[in-house]
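The instructor's notes for this session suggest beginning with a concrete chain rather than abstract definitions. Hand out the sequence below and ask the class to guess, before any prediction is shown, which regions might be ordered.
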Amino acid sequence: MATVSVDQSSSAWVGSARGCVRLRIRAVPGSRREGVIGFHGESLRVAVHAPADRGRANEALVGVLASGLGLDRRDVEVLSGRSGRDKIVSVKGIDEAAVRSRIERLLRAGTQSGGGAR
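After discussion, reveal the predicted structure:
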């Protein structure tokens, strides 16, 4: 398992396009714990309980991101990568700076509480 890090020096995991924020995600389905757990290359790692079976992990991913970012589920959408671990997710109702800030807060909280998928 990759080490949890709050270093966001690589900005490739987040960007703005067409009035929304887009996130590059590396999903970790079937995890014991859920949440934002760090980075995998230029992607944000997000762990979910649900297995990668019939879209269940994608639905769980949407819920984890919406909850962590303080948004409604309808504001988070998987745009590409529905059948793989690497995904592009669109987020509405929040700007890029706020996404970065909230993700950093989630990573710090996970580090302090010993959170993260194993």
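Then share the key points. Residues 15-112 form a domain with the Conserved Hypothetical Protein Mth637; Chain: A; fold (CATH 3.30.1200.10). The mean pLDDT is 88.
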